[in-house]
Amino acid sequence: MSSAPPSAQPFSDARISEAEIPTEVEARIAAGGKIVVDETRVKDELRTKGFGEKEDAEYVLKPYEGLYLMHTKRLRLKNKPDMIFDRLFELLLKYDKNIMTKFLVYRDLRSRGYVAKEGFGFGNDFRVYARGEYEKKPAKYVVFGLNEGTNVTANHFARAVDQIEKMGKEAIVAVIERRGEVIYYKASKMRFTENRYNQNNA
Questions:
Q1: Residue 183: enclosing H or E segment and its boundaries?
Q2: Which helix (H) or strand (E) holds 116?
Q3: Residue of 15, 52, 55, 192 with fewest CB within 10 Å of its CB?
Q4: What is the model's pLDDT at position 139?
Q5: What's the chain's average pLDDT?
Q6: H or E element: which one contains 143?
Q7: How far is the C-alpha of 139 from the C-alpha of 116, rounded, in Å?
């Protein structure tokens, strides 16, 4: 894994505009911490801006999406009108011990204007679309969230990077520092060229 030089950082530092965040989202909290949106107008706005997914007959926000919208004061839970960010986090933590890692990476990507969707199951990962390309082109990146100091086996990481590259996407590691800052590193599978030693030339 190598850190990209400042001029080649994968994600722009440009901040999100207000137009990229839904105006107001009214939803309800259901069993298992599921956040369900019922109103058609709200569903349409969320879909256009890359939030939520249809699950069977319901339109559902991922837990980290719900936290982000609560953090930006856009989410109101109609069956829990007094719900605040800290309480929602404590509730969702019961169902996903990695929710803080996912939220911090998701919040950072969204604040930079990138649409991030659920990943491919590599672990705390997101599909991330180049700016302005959501619903126009496939995701360009797969981003892994790792807390600073987390140990990851080399074989597991190499297999994941190899699969991502075969999909035609760029693998990015998002390291969350202890203060909550997110630093991005481009990752690629290292390839070694075999050097053959010719004894006749010794």
A1: strand 182-187
A2: strand 116-118
A3: 192
A4: 95
A5: 86
A6: strand 141-147
A7: 9
- The domain that holds 105 is classified in CATH as 3.40.1350.150
Count the domains in the chain: 1
Q: What letter represents residue 6's amino acid? A: P
Cβ–Cβ under 8 Å, residues 165 and 188: yes
Predicted confidence band of residue 83 (pLDDT cuts 50, 70, 90) = very high
Residue 192 lies in a domain: no
Q: For residue 46, which of 75, 25, 74 has the smallest C-alpha distance? A: 25
Q: Which long-range contacts (CB under 8 A, 24 or more apart) does 186-190 make?
A: 186/1, 186/2, 186/3, 186/4, 186/8, 186/10, 187/1, 187/2, 187/144, 187/157, 187/161, 188/1, 188/2, 188/161, 189/158, 189/161, 189/162, 189/165
pTM for this prediction: 0.84
Q: Is residue 201 part of a domain?
A: no
Domain assignment of residue 13, given as a range: 6-187
CA distance 159 to 85: 36
Examine residue 193 and state whether it is found in any structural domain, yes or no. Answer: no
The tens digit of pLDDT for each residue in 178-192 reads 888 999 999 876 543
Report the pLDDT value the prediction gives residue 76, as an integer from 0 to 100: 96
DSSP output for 14-74: PPPPGGGS-S-EEEEE-GGG-EEE--HHHHHHHHHTT--EEETTEEEE-HHHHHHHHHTT-
Helix/strand/coil for 132: coil
